[in-house]
Amino acid sequence: MALLQISEPGQTPEPHQRKRAVGIDLGTTNSLVATVRSGTAEALPAEDGRVILPSAVRYLEDGVEVGYGARAAAGGDPYNTLISIKRFMGRGLADIKHFGEQLPYNFAADTAGMPSIETVAGAVNPVQVSAEILKVLAQRGAESLGGPLDGAVITVPAYFDEAQRQATKDAAKLAGLKVLRLLNEPTAAAVAYGLDKAEEGGDVADKTIAVYDLGGGTFDISILRLSKGVFEVLATGGDSALGGDDFDRAVAEWIAVEAGLGTDLDAATQRKLLDIACAAKEALAAETSVPMAYDHWSGALTRDGLAELIDPLIGKTLRACKRALRDAGLDTADVEEVVLVGGSTRTLRVREKVQEFFGREPHADIDPDQVVAIGAAIQADVLVGNKSREDLLLLDVIPLSLGIETMGGLTEKLIHRNTTIPVAKAQEFTTFKDGQTAMAIHVVQGERELVKDCRSLARFELRGIPPMVAGAAHIRVTFQVDADGLLAVSAVEKSSGVAAEITVKPSYGLEDSDITRMLQDSYANAEEDIAARALREAQVEAERTLEAMLVALQEDGAELLDERELGELERAMEALRLAHNGGTPEEIRNRIDALNTLSEPYAARRMDKSIKRAMQGHSLDEFDKP
Amino acid sequence: MKLQQNHFEIFGLPQTYEVDRQVLTKRYRELQQEFHPDRFAAKSEREQMLSMQYAAQINEANNTLKDPVARAQYLLQLAGIEIHPEQTTADGEFLMQQMILRERLEDVRDAGDPEAELEELGSDADELFRAQEQAFSASLGNQALDAASAALLKMQFLAKLRRQIDALEEELLD
User: Fold this and answer.
1) Containing H/E element for A479?
2) Where are the alpha helices (DSSP H) in chain B?
3) In angstroms, what separates the C-alpha of A385 from chain B's closest C-alpha?
4) Which of A69, A151, A246, A286 could make an S-S bridge to A180, C-beta 3.0–4.6 Å?
């Protein structure tokens, strides 16, 4: 076990060296990367100056194209151009068929239960496609910051379940990114506006925040509660098929009627009308009336005219807001801050109606396309260690309950929704047959009673249970959910202390071996030296471990260790140093493990000491004062 | 590995039923500031794993201590008594009272003003719960563990009733 480097508040143990960290908004339609420079967070542009990267990936026989070029090709090369892939993350083929729309892709189920899409470059899955988008953004970040990235915060929708979060993290791994944290999109938006910060001279107040996110094709509403430093998602809602594109459609239909074009329009005419509609919609942000022309027709669209066309659509979003508030047990009057996210909130009518609904002016100063990436960048800057620790601590909750399947297809909830993460829950199981040495555990996520109504996450198979009579073996299974909302399971037979061997079969995801294989494939394609990378990774881990140990020993090695222990540790450190300087990755890993095992008692003593210290200096009556 | 301390010791709180929620919350945040995995996001994998275990334990301790029933169960557990969450009381008079309360709950839908009736039922249940809390606290203080166990069983009953009242309230709102 390694040592935790606990530093004094306000101090950074490392010499001050800025780390390269970015925040990434991996969106359904568009993606962005942002970073903090000279104290300010900003979205990073591509060479052409545009910050938005359309989330479109086109597979060619000899390569991959990501962004504007790919999106433009979607019409001409639909089978090889993948758009809105985010909707398929962590989903099975059956789920996608349920989306009930005509998708041009050639789907096949792959071994991992994930959809696999046939392209001219071979079959690809949603994780690989997302990784291509992330690679472009990571590259942009590295070029802009002048070197390889130390880490990234990637945003996900608040309602994403474990499988969807895991798929996002897997995509980052494939793209070669170190994920500092998966952050909820609405939380990132709130962070961008500094809503987590304390009021002038006071403590952080309890606040209820509504994040209204209207993109091109999706609408999300999230109700957040910020209380005592905990960001809690109270409720989420929305419409996955409603966005600014629908505004354009409404305006285009109006033009068609006004110009007497009839209803049976060819694709090219439709496209032309949509472009005119979109341009007019955007121009109305600055003008009160814009002239329009198509063919022999000319006319004008006023703000009032636009309002009339899109009010029914905005009304739909507000009804979703009402539902979300009711789910949260709140009223519009309880909402203290409203944040606007998504390009379609630029439409003035949307702002007016949102303001009217909540009865307060929404935050809209930050570019609504960039606000999520900017919040992620601010959090990345803190997590990577560039900013002092006081600034920000986001405690997240698990969005959906985790449970296991019990007799009769029923769900037994182990970890309830809205529990603060990380969290661990242990459950005891026993054998029901004499000599039984294996058992299976089915983990599901959701709020419903029946397993079939929840989402299947994974099946865990325990093996190596010592043979005993039925009911004698007590297997303690620990379900651990980390700060990103990802699940890990471990098991031990209590009477014998034997750790059961666990095989995980994600229901719609990748196994570790799949990722390793895909990584190898992608390295082969990029002609990168996989061995060199493995060695470098092991060396970095060795450096981190040695540094942590050195700092710890300087601090309290003499106090907490006797001479023999100290000598053993120093020898193990020297062995690791030697391995670091000339060993293979395996040798380095082995030495790290050896040092970690040896330092376990020391780690425990340090931890107890620092807990005592954290509690020191507090007398009971100190807290009585308001 | 585990923290050596029990949930009360982690927060430096006296091992009693009465817990100052403000102190608990303040110390909870101080500890998470120190041990949350976000503080180790740029550190070694082992440090990250260890910090996750500690943060999980701090969360568990906080969740246990801030919930009245879980806290009472935990205090008895520390005294060597395991009370199952579904275990029922054998107190006939109490059971009779419970039956009446449950009948009132079932009749709420048909009442002239369901919301007002539900509100009244809720405040009655809360009052009974507070009385059992006091009984639990006093008994535990006197080391009368049997009496404390009996009070906890009633608290569990009343907490369950409270959840059903809340669920019905949500239903009525729709």
Assistant:
1) strand A474-481
2) 7-10, 21-35, 45-66, 68-78, 92-107, 114-141, 145-173
3) 7
4) A151
Q: According to DSSP H, which parts of A454-584 are helical? A: 512-526, 530-560, 563-582
Q: Looking at the partner chain, which of B22, B44, B52 has a beta carbon nearest the beta carbon of A544? A: B44
CB contact under 8 A, A608 and B54: no
Question: Helices then strands (H, E): number in chain A?
Answer: 15, 26
CB A414 within 8 A of CB A379: no
Q: Are A140 and A148 in contact (CB under 8 A)?
A: no
What's the pLDDT tens digit per position in B21-61?
889 988 888 888 888 998 888 777 778 888 898 999 999 99
Here the tokens at position B152 are 């906890």
Interface test with A, best of B28, B46, B172 (most A CBs within 10 A): B46
Residue A284: pLDDT band by 50, 70, 90 thresholds?
Answer: very high
- Supply A148's token pair: 């390889």
Chain A partners of B66 at a C-beta cutoff of 8 Å? none
To 5 degrees, how large is the angle CA A271–CA A272–CA A276? 115
Query: CB distance from A383 to chain B under 8 Å?
Result: yes
> How much is the ipTM here?
0.83
Please report residues of A whose CB lies closer than 8 A to that of B43.
Answer: 4-5, 544, 548
The set of residues, in sequence order, having a beta carbon less than 8 Å from that of A528 and lying 6+ positions away, is: none
| Chain A touched by B54 (CB under 8 Å) | yes
For B65-95, the pLDDT digits (tens) are: 999 999 999 999 999 998 887 777 778 888 8
Which among A149, A192, A614, A339 has a CA at the least distance from the CA of B5?
A: A614
According to DSSP, the residues that pair with A72 across neighbouring strands are none
Q: Looking at A257-343, which runs of residues are DSSP E strands? A: 289-294, 297-302, 337-341
Max CA distance (Å), chain A: 94
Tokens of A221: 């509403």
Token pair for A225:
């509660």
Smallest Cα distance from A261 to chain B, Å? 45
B18 touches chain A (CB under 8 A): no
Coil, strand or helix: which one is A271? Answer: helix
* Whole-prediction pTM: 0.81
| pLDDT, tens only, B117-131 | 888 999 999 999 999
Q: Tokens for B162, please give them.
A: 């409270």
Question: For residue A237, what are the contacts with CB-CB under 8 A and spacing of at least 6?
Answer: A220, A221, A320, A321, A323, A324, A327
